[in-house]
Every structure is written in C-alpha cells, then in structure tokens.
Design a protein that fits this description.
Blueprint lengths: L2 H10 L11 E2 L10 E2 L5 E10 L1 H9 L11 E5 L1 H5 L6 E6 L5 E8 L6 E6 L7 E7 L11 E8 L2 H11 L1 H7 L7 H4 L1 E6 L12 E3 L8 E4 L6 E2 L8 E5 L6 E7 L8 E5 L4 E6 L8
C-alpha cells in the first residue's frame, strides 16, 4: 500500500497529515458560536439515487438496446485514490439500491477520506466505475455533514465499448504502450461538463495540471461514432485515457473557465472514474 502517496496528496492540498483539523467549526455564514467537530471520530451518512449515466441511457434508447437493471445493485463508497493504489481499506460501506435507485449508506468514517469520496455501482451489464460524489478541491477539507441527494452513475458495457471504439484501439494502445485495447483495461476518466442548470456544455476543453497528460483527453461525438481532441460535443462528454500501468492522480481544469474549480481525479487500470464538472461549489439540481 502506497501510504506516502496518500500523505503527499494531503500536503499538496494544504491539509494536515490526517487531511483535516480535529477541532474546526462547521462552515457557515457565522461560526463564532459553532461547536467543534471531532473529525477523528465523525461518521456521516450518504444518500441519493443510482441511475444509468444520462448520456448512456439516451444512447441505449436511440438504438433500442435494453438497459441493465439496477434493482438491488450494491452501491459501495470508496476513496478513489486508495482504490487506485489497491489499499485494502479503500471502501467505507455498501448498501443496495432500491427499485427506484434510492440508497443510503450510514456510518461512513470521515477520518478515512483523503482527497475525495466516490460511489461505485455493481450490476450485470455495467463496467466497473466509481462516481465522484465529494471532492476536497472545493473545501480543502473532509465532509463534516451528511451528503444528501448525490447521484451515482452506472456505465453500461455497451456504452463503454462504443466509447472505446470512438477513441480508437490504436490511440488506446498508443497511450498504454500496447498494454490495453479498451478504456476499461487502460483505466479511464469519463467526464461530463455541464452549466449551472445541469445542461451539457459544448466546446469546452479540459486540461490536466501536467503537460505530459494533455494528449490523453478525447471528446466523443454524440453518437459515439468518432472522437476528436478539439472540445466537447453537444453531450459535453470527455474521456481521459490512462497508461494501463501504475495509479496516477492529477488535477483537471476547464480551460479558460474560472467558474469551474479544478478537480481531483485518480485513475488506475481496470476501472473508470465518472466525473461531473460544473461551475461553482455546488452541483446543479
């Protein structure tokens, strides 16, 4: 387990070695009389709904393809960075999704979070993927209250396969030194750029905070028949192709758009991170 990588990430974010103070008041408009929060023992609840990625659902519907069932699908909370380095303690709780997709996971230990919190959805017909639901990039700290109304997105295998074809096997093999032919085997980030109302943003360009990673971002067309490196299409989607090798972490920004906070991402072979990139501090309704 690569503990030095975890500690370094905390330092780079300006957090304490435990990634958070033990006695800071809850944030708010007025904190003079706020009670302190014991982050070493704090546990929170996470609730929301699981569903297929909206773009994937539309793509399936347009082709008359059946959607995977999410009824009783396990929703597992995890730290993406720790998943990426195969930390055996990376997961913090699991609960089944109800027929309508709703779920609640209780007693999530805040002290175990470093950079972010993600939720994975497992079901037949889905690729292994985790949706980022809390990112310390917004606050510089761990969550201190329950997370509610979160959205966890499932990525159908058919949609993943079409994305891999759009990016191109040659491109994926080139980025992985011929280690992988699909996004899943390489490791990937599947992102959605939206505006404050949740509508997709066309023409957006994403930039990692490292120049050596810039050429790994692709923008699929709406029908997934092709992918360019010019900017997001009408669905606002982008795909980052990992190396197929060791885990990596970096910041991802929307070029020329200060309202969009740079986001933490972690990636490793065998799974994908699903990320909604939105302006401001709060996700759209």
């Amino acid at each position: 387990m690569k503990r030095p990588l975890l500690m370094l990430s905390c330092v780079l974010l300006g957090l304490s070695p435990g990634c958070g103070d033990n006695a800071n008041p809850d944030p708010g408009l007025q904190t003079d009389d706020a009670e302190t929060v014991d982050l070493d023992n704090l546990r929170i609840g996470v609730s929301g709904k699981a569903a297929l990625l909206p773009e994937a659902q539309r793509w399936l519907d347009a082709r008359g393809l059946a959607a995977p069932s999410l009824d009783a699908a396990p929703v597992t909370l995890a730290e993406p960075l720790r998943l990426a380095v195969n930390d055996p303690n990376a997961t913090f709780g699991t609960a089944p999704a109800a027929a309508d997709g709703s779920f609640t996971v209780s007693d999530v230990p805040v002290r175990e979070l470093h950079l972010s919190l993600a939720a994975g959805l497992e079901a037949a017909g889905l690729v292994r993927a985790h949706t980022l639901i809390y990112d310390s990039a917004f606050t510089g700290a761990r969550p201190r209250t329950d997370l509610v109304d979160v959205r966890v997105w499932g990525v159908p295998e058919a949609f993943h396969d079409a994305l891999s074809t759009a990016v191109g096997e040659g491109a994926i093999r080139g980025h992985t030194g011929n280690l992988a032919a699909t996004l899943r085997d390489a490791g990937f980030v599947l992102g959605r750029v939206v505006d404050a109302a949740g509508n997709p943003v066309a023409g957006a360009r994403l930039a990692p905070d490292r120049e050596d990673l810039a050429g790994r971002i692709y923008y699929p067309s709406a029908d997934l028949t092709a992918a360019s490196q010019e900017g997001t299409g009408p669905e606002g989607l982008f795909v980052y192709v990992h190396s197929g090798m060791d885990a990596d972490t970096f910041l991802l920004s929307v070029t020329g758009a200060e309202a969009y906070v740079p986001r933490n991402v972690g990636v490793a072979p065998g799974w994908g991170l699903v990320l909604t990139v939105h302006p401001g501090l709060y996700p759209p309704p």
